[in-house]
Amino acid sequence: MVRKIFLSFLALSLGLMFNLPTMSFAKSYSKKIINVASDTTFPPFEYEVNGKIKGFDIDLISAVLKSEGLKLKLRSMNFQGLIPALQTGTIDIAVAGITIRPGRAKVVNFAYPYYHSGLSVLVKKGSSINDFPDLKGKIVAVKLGTTADIMMSKKPGIKVQRFSNIDDAYNQLRSSGADAVVFDNPVNLNYAKTHHNVHIVGHLLTSENYGFAITKREPWLLKAVNKGLKKVYKNGTYTKLYKKYFGNDEHGFVKIGK
After folding, report:
1. Quick one: 111 and 35 in the same domain?
2. At 53, which CATH number?
3. Is 23 contained in some domain?
4. Residue 42 counted as domain residue
5. Number of structural domains the chain divides into
């Protein structure tokens, strides 16, 4: 009898030992509200319409979290504040067309790349600037803290003007306060579609990938987002959203998780 009781107790203990973490993980995984922040000055990836945040990134992260049974709580935040907010745990995920860079990956986690991009040069039509080398001695407008800012700041002979909002950089070009805007190609393309006095010149200056940045304080969340990204790619949601925002331009299309 004593032996029977002991074996029953042992079996129960082992069951609890191995099942409790799984149960706890599943509970937090399925019910947690995920705090997501976005810089809404990056169309068509994120932008605001009548106070509502929209865009490719927003639709994609919403579909990803939904596929994993997670709820999204969305807020707007300046680009400069996104990484620090992830580090402190103020937010869980940042979506803002964020380039996956080694320096950033030291302080935040990145999910699978979901868009392939690069920097391009936007100028007024009739400009003497035809490619990157022609920027020497010119005034170049960039968005503060972005890859374009970092790259242009390292190039001698270029006067860099920094703006917290990319629209201000474009306005500077339109008013002739800057000779060019260097920024992410899909956003430059989107701007050029609706402003016919400007165009992109030369080749792409970089080759880079965008990824959702995730706080390192929640290691399980990276796995959940990656799992969700693979799901929405496999079921066609990613392709549908991509075509909605970028049409037949396949330059940015990524085979997620491949």
Report:
1. yes
2. 3.40.190.10
3. no
4. yes
5. 2
**CA–CA separation, 35 and 80 (whole Å):** 17
In a domain, 17, yes or no: no
User: 41 is written with which tokens?
Assistant: 């000055």
CA 68/CA 89 separation, integer angstroms: 21
Domain residues for the domain of 192 are: 119-206
Contact between 95 and 57 (Cβ < 8 Å): yes
Asked whether residue 112 falls in the same domain as residue 227, the answer is yes
Residues 76 and 87 in one domain: yes
pLDDT in tens, 188-237: 988 998 999 999 999 889 899 999 999 999 999 999 999 999 999 999 99
> Which secondary-structure segment (H or E) carries 152?
helix 147-153
Q: How many CA atoms lie within 13 A of 126 on its CB side?
A: 4
pLDDT tens for residues 94-122? Answer: 999 999 999 999 999 999 999 999 999 99
As a whole number of Å, the end-to-end CA separation of the chain is: 57
Element (H, E) at 121: strand 119-124
Same domain, 126 and 54: no
Q: What is the pLDDT of residues 74-89, one digit of tens each?
A: 999 999 999 999 999 9
Q: According to the model, what pLDDT value does residue 77 have?
A: 96
At what angle are helices 219-234 and 56-67 packed, to 10 degrees? 100
Does the residue 20 lie in any domain?
A: no
Distances (CA, A) of 184 to 116, 215, 240: 10, 24, 22
Q: What are residue 38's DSSP bridge partners?
A: 76
The number of CA neighbours under 13 Å toward the Cβ of 76 is 12
Considering the domain architecture, whether residues 123 and 198 belong to the same structural domain is answered as yes
Mean pLDDT value across residues 64-70: 96
The pLDDT value recorded for residue 21 is 40
pTM of the model: 0.75
